[in-house]
Every structure is written in C-alpha cells, then in structure tokens.
C-alpha cells in the first residue's frame, strides 16, 4: 500500500494569500521614509486603534527627503492595529496599519 501523504492537499477554495486574513487589509507605505502618526509632536495621532477610516482619511505622514507626505487609508474600515512606532523608518510596501474592512 502507498504511504498516506503527510499533508492533506490544500484546497484553493477559501485559501488566502500568505499573511492576509479575510476581512482585513493593510495600509502600506507607498515610499521609503520616516513614519509619523501625527502632524506635529503636540498633536494627537491621525488615527488610533478603533478609528474609523475611509479612502480619503489621512492616517499618517511619511517624511521623505524633508517633504511631508500625507498618507491616505485608501480603504473603508476600522483600524485594529498600529504596526509601526512613531518616528520609525519605513520601507516601501511596509505594513503600517491593519484595518478591518467595513
């Protein structure tokens, strides 16, 4: 008799890309720069956990070559996790916020 396969064959139906959960998406950095959660050190963060966002919501600033770039969520939903510390350098495509899609 043939040995049983070690892993059950995975069905493509219902599978998701590695690291992405159904119903969630990520706001990703469109550039390399420094991540800031608020417009200035004295201001509150643009968004926090449980903040509602939509496509036009500014969620952070990324400073690149002394230019402050406002980053929009580009998705409608609720922020469930902040993945980057304020003032931290970020890479292109790095996940900044986890958002539960509305």
Q: Your description of this structure?
A:
By secondary structure, the chain is an all-beta fold. The chain is 0% helix and 38% strand. A 4-stranded antiparallel sheet has the order 1-8-6-3, with no helix packed on it. The chain is globular and about 65 Å long. Residues 8-17 have low confidence and may be disordered.
User: What structural category arises from helix and sheet content?
Assistant: mainly beta
Number of helices: 0
Q: Helicity, in percent?
A: under 10%
Overall pLDDT metric: 88
Order of helices and strands: EEEEEEEE
Number of strands: 8
Radius of gyration: 18 Å
Write down the overall geometry. globular
Strand order of the largest sheet: 1-8-6-3
Strand content: 35-45%
**What is the distance, rounded to the nearest whole angstrom, between the alpha carbons of the first and last residues?**
51 Å
Extract low-pLDDT stretches.
8-17
- Give a quick account of the main beta sheet: strands, pairing sense, barrel closure: 4 strands, antiparallel
Structure, briefly:
The protein is mainly beta. The protein has strands at about 25-30, 35, 50-55, 60-65, 65-70, 75-80, 90, 95-100.
